[in-house]
């Protein structure tokens, strides 16, 4: 491509996906007109890798703080490239088994989760979990000599492990983290309390053992409603005297009140708003 044409082409930025929902950013400077699902070869730090275009993204929306460089797209992948990638995936299965043997030989307390070859086999990454820090320097030497390539051992958390391994949640559907979630949000017990859910770790924990990510989906709505209406245990004034809010159903817009004489009465949010306006 001549220099004048390259100057005319505006760079196009994309989100690129690699194995098991590992994502990065890449840029097309040659006007390839890429679309979702296209496979491309990208230039990485040391060599070339292959990934699938997930979506186009504006340059200003790219989070530079993520630490990963924006990868340069070299070319579209060919059918031969895709066949070679499938062969690599099979080799990764065997590589993981062989690595486990080395881990057992060295007596290291680590759980191997996955293996991933760079497309040009210039690097082989092993993902693992461990309860504490692991000194794997000798293991890296063993693996480098055995596989004859650059080795990277990357420790991940239990949520990342579940994301890589996949599975099904209590809802019966494939895990959110393994299908469409790109980032993990910190979930606290506040998410449970504001949605008036019973604090039951067994029912509210996911496959990873942490609080389920889906607790965050409706949290903004409940948080907004909680700022407008009374909360459980709040005391409110009614025409019948002071009462305590003992239950709230934000979906049905009903709150249940308990009076000092142990009477219970449900009222709608609309009734409560009327009482508030009248200054009861």
Report what the structure shows.
The chain has 280 residues and is an alpha+beta fold. It has eight helices and twelve strands. The chain has four domains: 3-77, no CATH class; 83-156, GMP Synthetase, Chain A, domain 3 (2-Layer Sandwich), CATH 3.30.300.20; 161-220, no CATH class; 229-278, Roll (SH3 type barrels). The chain has a five-stranded mixed beta barrel with strand order 1-2-5-3-4. The chain has a four-stranded antiparallel β-sheet with strand order 9-10-11-12, with helices on one face. A hairpin with a 5-residue loop joins strand 6 (111-117) and strand 7 (123-129). Helix 2 (79-106) crosses helix 3 (137-147).
How would you concisely characterize the structure shown here?
By secondary structure, the protein is an alpha+beta fold. It contains eight helices and twelve strands.
Per-chain topology:
Layout: H1 3-8, E1 12-17, E2 23-28, E3 39-44, E4 47-56, E5 71-76, H2 79-106, E6 111-117, E7 123-129, H3 137-147, E8 150-155, H4 158-165, H5 189-194, H6 201-204, H7 219-228, E9 235-238, E10 241-249, E11 254-258, E12 264-268, H8 269-278
Parallel strand pairs: 2-5, 7-8
Antiparallel strand pairs: 1-2, 1-4, 3-4, 3-5, 6-7, 9-10, 10-11, 11-12
Helix pairs in contact: 2-3
